[in-house]
User: Fold these one by one.
Assistant:
Number 1:
Amino acid sequence: MASAISRRPKRVRGPDPTISLKQALVQFEGALTEDQRRQYQASATKPDAASVIAFVAEVDSNKSSTTRRCVAPRLCTFLEAATQQFSAIMDTFVSSNPQIAALVWGGVKTAILTASNIASYFDKVTNMIMTIGRSCPTYQQFGHLYPGCVGLQLGLCDYYAVIVQLCIKIIEISKRTPVTQILSSILNPFEAEFKKFLDQLDQAVEDIRLQLSFASKKANADAQKLLKRESRSNSAFRRLTSRFHEESRSEYTKAQEWRINNLKRETAELKSKIRDSLSTINHIKPWRQALRQRVPSTAEWLQQESLFLRWKDRWNTEILWCSGTIGVGKTVLMSNVVAQLHASRKPSDIISYYFCCADYAASLTARNIFGSLTRQLLDAQIEVAGKDSLRRFYEDSRDLNAAETIDFLLTHLKGDKRYYIVLDGFDECDGSEIQQVAQGIAKLCSTRTKGFKIICAGRPELERQLFRTFVPKYKISVTEGKVESDMDQYIAAILGRCLEEEQLKLGDPKLIMKISNALHDGSNGVFLWTRLLIEELCVQGSDNGILAVLNHLPRGLSEIFDRKLHRVQSEATAKDAIATLQFCGVAKRSLTVMEYQEALSLSPGQTSLDSRKFPNDMNKVMLNCCGLIFVDEEDSTVHYVHHSVKQHLFNINHWLSEEFDTRKLDQHLSLLCMTYLDFNTFKCQISKVAEGSNTLITPFQLGTTPIYRSRNDTGRMAMKLLSHRQHLQHLSARELERKSRKLFDDLEASRVDIDLQNGNFQFLDYARSCWVYHVTDLDPELDKQMWKFFSRCVDGDITLAHRPWESADQTDDERNDILRAVRWFLDHGHFALLLYHTKRQPNILTGKVTYEILKSCRIQDRGRFTKLVIQQNEGYFDILHYGLFYTSREGCIASVEALLQAGANVNARVDNRTALQGAAERGHLEVVEQLLKTKANVNAAASVDGRTALQAAAEGGHLGVVERLLAAKANINAPAAKGEGCTAIQAAAGRGHLDVVEQLLEAKADVDAAGSNGPMGRTALEAAVESGYLDVANRLRRAGAV
């Protein structure tokens, strides 16, 4: 394919935006050896998302040093933007040579693989690629603007031409002999070798940004011209215009071009809207972070397990459950499963994955989990869909809850595909979210579509919650024995890296053997313990200090966390370090180091940003958290080193427990956010915009920048001023500013303007977008200052405060639909907003709104919401009955008791079901007890297709509830309801619940009871055999089933 680019590109009619890129590709091929050229030609295929992951897995396996880090996290961002996304739009304007995008991909792969043969050089190359990836133009920026914009096309091609030139340089340096490599690194350092290319890329990015602005204006102008032309073409105007049919051919051609480009833009926008409707969660980042922790050649044992291979290769829908205790490397193991599935992917395989993040609240909801999976699994279909199909996709994908998202997914699945789903981290989700996830997984697995391959990792206790109705066919435990080889490699690699980077310093080199042996003997297969202890060893100042740690090894994670907290408290920056640990636990998304710098300087009542309060050395603050957090090297976000750190800080009793009260910290951070948004700086800017120009400028744009403030630059400025202090000390402030500017001409003017004048309001984006999520539960009487601030933000008095329940793309009708707003309050558990609106508009709780609250609010919020509904609807018994059913089904005992006390009928039916049947179906034993105590009818009949309370409990596998209902004289042999009904033993057998079957047989269940008259009617034995539960089938046969 590489030869498809002629060495002398043919002349084309009109401007060809690809000329520079074609020339660069010709030069690249000329710089290769024969072997490299063959590799290049084999690599030049059109990439997709799976290609990127498969390639980085290949790079990591092509290692030459066991101490080298996995480089996948560094490469991914650039490869996704620079190759996969670029490829997606390249063919649309490169008609003369559609292989260009594939050749760019092949060139990048060849350069990276060539550089990977030289370890020290490769580390610098990957770091450079990671830096380039931060500013690389993305499809989200240009995707819907490129059609018809030659300038933008030219800018993108020029950018990638520089990328190819940079790849040529990487190849050339890789060819040098080792001696030449050493001499070159002394005479011409790495940064100097590539500075020219990096400068050209920076300039190309600026050009693309300018072209994006032009493209946006051109798109609007073309749309207006097209609209104007279409209006001239109506029949009334046609009758008045005698020359209508004399329109020139060029004008018609131009109009056609506008239509085509407009269609392309609308199509691209629709695709983006559909994907964003399904999910805006970045599912790739947590995978990259997990893979970064992996040491090469580890976390590979799972792929050799026979159970894994059977799960992977068969077409039937099956679940593999991978369990292990905290810190044994489950997440890293799953990250490598993702990489290996992509590496061995077949054309019919579609792979999705989701890693929950404890420090990103939005990632822990069932809706976002299934939304992200749906977006990944349907992405290829969305990409090739026509405009009419996309419109239907968009309408059907809007405002879906978790269950509706699964229905949407199942509606669009293809029967000839095999769908892989890799899941990790559900342990961090709330119980109600886990319940929704469990229901969703069961629904996916019960569909008739074959080929759902689900692998899920978690702690052992999660299994019972997650697989109540669909039992995993395959189970693998991550034990100390299985990871022993990995642990030895991990210890050797991390200690080697610490020695190389001089983090670990030894007086006696033989001490390393004692360290290694102690780590091996004390780890018990827990990688997290090993990692944290190595960090403890590295901060010791002497061999005696190291020996003292080895002689008193912490007995578990809890003890090592406490040791580190003692260290944190003893450091000079203890206040800032503890605040960092606090905010990291309640922040709704990960904050960057520079956002922390501003947040740590804030206090309630502050009226402007004061840089004099900033911690001067944020690196020191991060280090003084003593290894409990880490800074992501790619985007400088701060994270706990493991989710168990958060659990220890906020849920375990220790001497600092009072400092880690979630509710208090949530409200404190919200108060800081609202204080920030109310700064006088922003009020002044708003006034200027209101009084001045016609240009549409949002105030927050004027104070923000993607460039991180550098204390090094500030220090250089200060040193320069200090050297001229004799001449400057008597000047006025204005004259000092003028003189200072002249002295700073060796620094970028833009950096000075941004850093010294605009103040770089780093925390603004977080404050305006997340303030509302920190104040979900406010008491107007107890939190008067907070309520005042909160009310001003909701009212719009604090203009910068974002109100997400009023999204920008809503129509007027949608914006005025209070039920729509209430759904947002319910989805996010925002009791304070509902309370605020009911105080301002007492009639807001209409019947329709009230029913929605009782049906849809989350379990953790149901008590407060139900109490408010009871207060507002005293005497409305239909509403109380409705509420009783749904609160019983969701298991909220406090709400059940409140509704019964308010007069709800314990035997009232909602959707032809009783509250007891709803509670039994979900296994809520405490609620079942309360309902029985209030005289609930244990034998209330089932409706068509329904279940009695006992049948529902048996089907769900809820043994405790089954035993309690039997004790309450439930009819064990109640007949199956019409349609898809079943007896209790049929229900338990069909779902494989052997323990429940045993209990029912002991209570004299009719083992041969007839099935219902519907298409799903089966005896208990037939149900067990058809579902593949041989152990249950054998037990039934021993009981006499035929």
Number 2:
Amino acid sequence: MNSSTKQTAPSRRVWARLGALSAAAGLVAATVWAGGGTFRDPSDTLAMGPGAAGQPAPPWTEAQAVGAARKSGKPVEVRAKGTSRQVTHANPDGSFTHESHAAPFRVMQRGEWVPVDTTMIRHSDGSVGPKAAETAMRFSGGGDMPLATISRAGRVMSLTWPTALPQPVLSGDSATYPNVLPDVDLVVHASATSYTHVLVVKTPQAAALPQIKTVSYGLKGTNLTFAVESGDRLVAKDTGSGGVVFASPAPKMWDAGDPVEATLADVEPTRSSPESARRAEIGVQVDGATLRLVPDAALLADKDVRFPLYIDPMTAPTSNSSWAMVDSGYPNEEYWRFDGDRDQRIGLCNRTDSGNTCNSSQIKRLLYTLPTPYQDNTIVVSSATFRVTMTHTYDGSARNASLYRMGAGISSATNWSNQPAWSKKQDTQDPTVSQGSCTSTNQNVTFTATGAAQEAAVNNWSTTTFGIRADDEGSKLSIKRFCDNAVLSVTYNRPPATPTNLTANPGGACKTGTPDNTWFVSSVPKLSAYLSDPETDAAEPLTATFTVTWTPSGGSLQTKTWTSGQKANKSTFDYNLADAATGVPNLPENVVVSWSVKASDGTASSASSVTCGFILDKTKPAGSDIDSPQFLASDAGDSTPSCVESGEWIDGAGRYGTFTFDSAAADVVSYKYGFDTNPSPTNVLTPTANGGPVSVAWAPMTEAPHFVTVIAVDAAGKESDTSVCNFNVAAGGQSVAQWNLADAPGSPQAVDERGANPATAGSGVTFGQPGPGGAAHPSVQLPGSNSTGYLATSSQGLLDTSRPFTVAAWVKADALTGYMSAVSQDGTGVPGFYLGYTPTSGKWLFGIPDMDVNAFRDWQVTSTEVVTAQTGWTHLAVVVDNVKDTMTMYVNGKASATAAVRSEWASHGNIQLGRRLAKTGHVWGWNGGISDVALFDRLVLPAEIDALAKPRLQRQVYWSLDSADVPDDNPGVFVSAETVVDGATPDETKDLTLYNGAWVMTPDPDDPFAERPLVGAGHMVLDGGDDYAASSKALVGQTGSFSVAARARLAAACGADQVVLSQPGAKTSRFQVKCVNIGGGQMRWQLTVAAADATATSTTVVVDDTHLPDPSNPLGQHLVVTYHAFTKDVQLYVDGELAASAQGSHGPVWDGPDNGVQVGRALLDGTTTTPTYGGYFSGVLDEVRVYSGVLDAATVIRLASTTAQSDL
């Protein structure tokens, strides 16, 4: 770009010290946020600075908005899904309503949404412009100012009038410059996205002026080139990408037409041509810095012209939303975006008795394409409407117009001859009341569009095209005019999950299939089911509807339906069939009774559960009592088969509890039992005396609802009822000790995160070394010395090794020639356990001696994975289950191997990190790194181990791009400093350097017409030619997991790859997140990850087919890439939602150099003499962040906020 267009920067070095900012409550019109409520922070897993103080943040996620809506009784916006054209509200009943607008209805100003307001106002510098528009526009206040300046993503187009302009007269959205030539006014109209400038030629003398025969404007662009395309369309193309940024439909001219007809049609002639007007096309020429319009000479000289004449070019940016008109009288002409008119006709043109006033126009139809972003298989569309403003009807009588779902999309090439098929009629309306104008909120005609919205949701359509036409296209009486302000409003819900854990007491777990002896019950049972709605929080109420059917002997089918009262989400619902008021206590015996259940949240119901059955036989023996002090404490005082269930969530996942079964019958000889299933013949307990109780230990291994079942069997083999008890199990307790080993270099000991058990370091321990997540995830380095290279606790017996326990740690083995122990606990002469490495098989090793002091053997489990010099950091976890006599090793979060263990002695010694005990002393010194050691006195769940295997998250750098400075030692470049949390000092080695003309735009916040930054006070502008930014600081690492994030706005459609972020190796880029063109004018966001640093390497590619790149979105789109080094998982998030993911083919270590991040380009080939870079980004970038570790979904949602958040 030309350096003269750069934003100048302050002479001194500055950086942004921003406190944590809460999202602003910019809610629209009547939408109310219930302020004062408390909402849980969706990202409490990541806290790198002080949280927002004062008011709670407005609802950002769907779950937060639903909670606020229920509390307030009013719709609440889901801010994470809001744009200038789209808004989603959570409704008090738990449903959501999403609105897609063809044109912007609101704009972001100072972090708040405000309604679009195109009223012209004056700025202090004298210029005029719309009060609140999506596109940045500025018009002359008179004098030598440019007539019009429009900008998007750092691309600026200016038009100038050849002479000084008079001060404009402002009225609504218009600025009129009187007598710019004799008897010629110049009128500018502004919309939310564009403007028109119309020359009003009032007299024949004015029409004869040479300045009218060829109208010349000065034309200037920044990062733009201008061309005239087919059909005399002026386009302004991005110099970098070649895509169209601004475009004008073919300019046209018309006369005043029949004044009576114009009045009847409510047409303002400076905005659009009356049907009766004489019209002609205007020639367009671009010659250097001059735009020439050549009006039709014949129309200028026509003696029958009805003055004024109107000469109307229009300028507008491109957009994903679109609309068009087609005219059967001009079958091969296109009227894209109504040719700049705000409204257009449907129906047959009115040909009056005085003659043909329609020229060739005949039947007109209107087409609209709107986003339908419902690519979510969990939603159910309950209703949808298509709203639009009608500005005119022929005579006010009720005449039908119909809405259709079209068979294909539309483009600027759509005309009558190639219009898409009118596939499915949605609705018919006969409106009679007109509005006087088109605004973003005055839609007065509503069509039902539920069918089309449901199709869009089922088929994952990103956009859907609608059409409006008159039912009677043979009569002028059906004439109507509709605006370009269509809105598609879709109400949807995510229904509750299908009920689970279906049980009957007596009866046990759900019985299906062919009835057998297990179906019989001795009494009318209580039916139970667990209901949940994954999309709402635990406080949201649900109801259960039970349906029970049976056919009495010789009778007809009977049905009983009962709906429960409301209970909290994630609750067990009971239906007591024996209840005299609500149940069926007199069910017949010896017939099959079937039952099922549905869940409802008030607006949507789940799928019906599986159908269960039982058979009543009152001669069957009653069931047994079930007790458990750990999980069924509320039933302790009850000795009957009935179970008193509290419904509370009990801490205990991964912990064993005792369950006792006892029958009132004296002849019981055995009990069959089951957990989360019916009693099994393989699960049999025998009492010490007939009729006596039995007990069994069991540990729930999921945080979920569970149930236990039991059958008592007498000496004759006759079985009792199946008794059942339901209980809910919450997550298990935290670790008993945890050493992250992130202590400062030179520390004498490692801090226990639980506070009570520090580990003293030997003299050979080196703290502060890069860990599994690089420097941001520190570790200790041990030299392999038994006497100096270790850490040990003074406290003893942290783990009772005679009971279940879990050990976890990150380890890196640097020497593979001898045995090594990373973690152990001392016994007397042997360790209670040890976790390390064995050179015998070259694998990870865990062992437990069979006894203390004089052990005969060690029970061991080794990994299936072989350890090599290239293995690097590995997460190990071993779960020891002394009850089942098993131990399972997990490697990088995945189960690797299971082996037997039959040792139940308890060691009571110290914890040793880096060695283990032997009779001769401590041995097996660890040579390598250790980090994040955790000890648990329970079985750790697989999901928890997976979480432990994720490296800790830490922000490496955040470039807010709110400022850029010229360093004293290099005046040829700009530098953007790291943005830090209040009180911290930026690290100058993390500066982002801007090259080749890249610059940071920081507009005056008080200028109402300036282009606004994506977030905060500024953003970086790249020209797509050779501009880019880069950091020389290694931020990602060669072995660890990482995440990168940025907000991006394309200047135009990407005809070729445009890279947002990348990391170069020596020969190719390790990863690239970019916009790609997949053909047919279609764009996608894409992430590629190279398997190796080689030009011909394989790559993992993930593509987002849902969130299409949208240059028209003034807020840009937020992109996040996460890379899990140990599972090889890569994920791409767009605007806070997971867009695509895959498992990569790369190895555990990046074999290229750990170079800094490239912003706005990527290394394509590093093998050439001069490395080849490409994919230069054309547009603006903002809010660039790099993390070590993997961002979680909740934090990604917060990062997608359009409010600056320096604490993330």
Number 3:
Amino acid sequence: MSSIWGEEFTRVAGNGKVVDDGFSGEGQVAARVALTRIDDKDEGNITLRSPGVWTFAHEVNMGPQVGSGVDGLSIVVDRERNRAFVGTNTLVSVVDLDLNLVTGGISGLSGAQFSLALSEERGELYVWEGGHFLLVFDLNSLEELKRIELESGRDWPSRVQWNRERPILVDEESDRIFMGNRSSVSVIDLVHGSIVKKIELTANSLPPGDFNNLQAITDLIADNGNGKIYAANPDKGLIEVIDAKTLEAENPLDPVSPPVQLILDPEQPFLYAVGYSRLVKFNLTTQASEANVPLRDTLPGDIFFFQTPNPYAIFNEKDRTLWFGEGHRNGLVGSSVSAGVINGDFRPPALFIVDVDQFEAPTPTMTWPMMPAALEIDPESGEVLQLGVDNRLNRIKLDEGALRTDSRNRVIPDAAVEIGGDPQLLNVSEGKNLVYVARGAHGGFFVLDNEGRIVSTAEGPPSLDIVVSDHFDRAYVFEAKDRLGIYELSTLRRLNATELTLNSDFFSTSVSQIQPDPRRGVVWIPSASKLVKLDPVNGRILGEIVLEAWEDGFPAYTDANRLTAYDPVADKLFVVRPGTDGNQILTLDVVDLENERVVSRIDLLKAFDGVSDISWILDMAFDASAERLYMWAMHGSRNEGKGHRILVIDTAREEVVDFVDAPGEAGVGFNVVFDLARRVAYNGRGGFVNLDTGQIGELVSKGDGDIGLNRLTNTIYTVNDTNRKLWVFLGPAGSETPPPVAPAEVEAEAGDEEVTVSWSSVDDPTLIGYNLYRQDRPGAQFVRINPQLITETWSLDTDLTNEQIYSYQVSSVGQGVLESVVFSETASATPEGGGDFRMILLRRALSVAREDSVSAPISLESLEGFGEEIGLTAVGAPEGLEIVFNPDKVVPPKVTELRVIAGANAPLGRFEIDLQGTGGDRAQTARVAVEVTAKELAESVLTLELDREDVVLGIPLVVNGRLFPGLSDIPIQLDFRGARGDTLITSTVDTEVGGGYRLEFDMPFADQWSVTASWTGNDDFAGITSRTVAFRGTSGQSRITATSDLADDADLGWIATLKGRIHPSPGTITVSINVRDPDGIERQIDGVLSTSEGFYGHDLRMDKEGIWEVWASWKGNDQLLGAVSPVITVPVQTDVGRVILLAGGQDSNRDVFWPTSNYLGNLAYTTFQRRRLVKEKIFYLNDRQEQDVDRDGFQEDVDDKATMSAWADAWTWARERVNSDSPLYVYLVG
């Protein structure tokens, strides 16, 4: 229950959404809430747009759901749980290294750029939050255990000025922590949670409170063999030495070059001191520097760059090499640096690989993937984790041969985990009601709906800016300096890239100035001295109009010097022309597009009283009805008190006729957007001005980034440069274009496995169609089920499950894809058709010699609760061939034996025999081929598997299997049958070495399909037909799975990772996870990002005993419909029993019974799961370990191979968990 304006109300679902935590205590909350009175007498809807003012709606993560981690500096790895923790400027991100996803985080801490350490032995994570405390967290639950108070005064700057983490060293033997200070080391007793000593070291130069670059202890390392702690003191150029037992400082070591990082050789008595431009090898035995290597941060033919403020290095124990990236005291910091790397203005530091035994200076040939902010290495696997300034964690495997590099000689990581977003510029499509955001170094661009949910991601190279054209169905993406990527907007496919290398003419070009020209079917893009004409479809350069360049021949360093605006009536393009010194904007070129020449120029000085100090035109907009051009101009001098003005130009008279003062500080630029219909202009810092009255105002919250406006909905979107989030602002109530109302009189009529939904038509001139939403169980989300807008007032929903309740809602959609705020009333129906059963032959072809017999299993499965007895018979067997079922009457689910007995008089040859099962009013038939031979032929087995069961039109289905025996170059025939289309498609594929085969099938149309593989046999082996596997071909359908990996012996409060996968993958999108705890309290977690492969994950603390229920959903997009997963159960401190399951046999071409054993074992596995025995409760032994048994997207169901040692391990596992009150199920197959 909640209340608003003194009235209590119950929050209920609206449009498939649930209002979660009530209303904010401050300001406005932008949402639409369905209100239901307690007495159920009436209902109402309110909108929280406010009259007359803008409302800050919400902010959207451009990164993981738990928070977008930016400006990180610290990495620690929990190897037992295969997790990494990353300390960022906003939170501690938790990375699941199996999923390559941020699944959790520690937020709400009062600090910035957290420094981390952990102890797996103690099960603790240590976080310094930039203040007076060291926080201790439990590694299992991530709950805070205690806070250890540090010194009363700060001995470390609140923000690390040199962008390096504060060193924290854990000594697990003594239960102590050593923390680096300005010129000392604090020793913390972890048992008592207090500082036991502060070890003073060589004093640094500056007085207390005055921190300059590297005026502190920058690294700590333990030498357990010698009982020493070494500390890097770069200001004094010393390696400080501490006795680990007495905690006394000893004589420091002089490594010749100032050390920033220290690395201890694990095999030999050497300490490696990593400094600026130098690497030192220090001999701990002789107490002297033995060798040093000067490193220059250049590549062959490259210029010298001052880039990263710190050197970073890791030691690869496998080949005894140091991997080093040089740093510079005045290097660049912050995530905004990634834009300069993309544009080619900067580059990451060179990667030096130094053999520590030879210790010679190498010549670098490659760079790190991105400027490093932290490095970590797994000594066992040899994998490097590199945190870049683009807020990604790069995973680089060092033991798999030569590193791969891109065209710029940057190392290509094996995987990259998004810790935080790197959004750049954005663009709004009013025709599609979508927002497009360039993803920076992460590549491609996001597609967000009008509320800011990420609904699609276009994969592609790194990107800086984007312009979309609904007319040409194209997205134009500025991918790098001089390169323009062309994407098809409707499919998000990258079609082409145009290199705009015209003698560096595009140095200051911004793709946001692309002007689509539908009249000529081209687009125009300005450069320093040309207006270039491009083919809008493929980006090919078609021609150019020469513009006058800067008089000094060098363009100003800004993306705004060649802004453009189009006059569609006069067919002219206005192009900003720079002034004499490359920094002043003096005139405006008027370009005749038909004749392709500059016809006149407009003087801009009048508006500033002739003072030539207009350094920047931020944006322009043309009002065709009034023949007025509006230009937001900025002064360049901050000290003269001049700010921003909007120039008003009469384009008919070609002169400045007026100006309006605008919000903004002189010399400070930002992005601008005009709304000429409402006579307002907005800037990216939250300011706006009325173009008629000159009244200046501010949005509710200020931003500091790019800005976009949807004029239909009067909604502003900004990218905040500080936290890299998208902010959404709603205009005053009533200022938006209203969508059509939802239909009335919705009815649902049930049929056999189908429902017909109908509704009354909506009378609205803006109406373009309807959307139909379905709910397949109470409490689940309503998901859109129509790939295209419905133009009729009815729709048929097919392929449903009988006896299941389906509920429907309908919405209306108007021009600009404006959808009804409130959907229709709900209509429900229950398809009926009765239960049924399925008869599956695991071997569809058998071979038998005269006076012999052969057996094969038949699986009978119940559908929709069918429980009648089934009688089995055979039809078509010739005389002398007897077909026997054992037993011949069964109640499904059941596996029975099919035995074929050939008498001495059985005819030779191949016979098709129909096997019939009848029960109740249902009947099923399956056909088996029996070959009778004079001599006994060796049996063969043919398996068949699909990579998925739901196939989307346009995405190939992968069919694979194996022929036993493992013969190569054997033709396998695959028959694909479409049921409704009555279609047969036959393909042939040859087996590979070992008998395996693989084929990609492009489904020609959506239907219910099945596929069967067959082989005719040879002189030694009998022919064989595989089982028939069904799959559903759909147009735009998707499927989402859900599972968890909470440890079987987890204590209350431990973290479970809720995870799953979307098939087929829609790319990086946002997923919603619904959780119902044992008390029945339900909550929805929105904004969980998936990977490009469709995986998602989110950490949840299981803090209540009982059965938890979890399901996931995603909204869908223009390519794929959304989906809701089945409900999964997670037992927490609740005993549901254990299972030992063994599928005997060997996954080999010598074991002809293996496919049957594997099938039956997997069938038993899924049956136990349906009875709430989740995968953590099942110890499954199977020779094929890499298989996804429950089809949840993860190959983690099989625990070990079917061996005697593994069998013993299974019983040990069971003894530790089973007692007199806990059942143990043992199921053996084979």
